[in-house]
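Entry 12.
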Amino acid sequence: MKLHGPEEPVYTISVAARLLGVHPQTLRLLEKEGLVEPARTKKNVRLYSENDLLLLRRIFELTRERGVNLAGVREILRLEIHQERVVRWEQKDVEDEEKEE
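Predicted 3D structure (tokens):
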């Protein structure tokens, strides 16, 4: 039974860091670099969602396993997001054409 959705910010920085096997300062650095933007509570506590953790895993895959620097990671993520949008548009066009038939 899932208690929260993938977009819901529920993990504090210490829990997120432990789940990812990194130091919390690493997550602060990635936030400072603009690669991840955790939600904040009223008391300014960072909270990460499941989707944030997936994004961070992708960042660590690119940096650790593929040797990509943070500027490269930023560009790769930008291109991946663009590609996802194009695929969605193409799927929508196909669905619209099928409705017209």
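Annotation: The helical segments are 13-20, 24-32, 50-65, 70-100. The mean pLDDT is 93.
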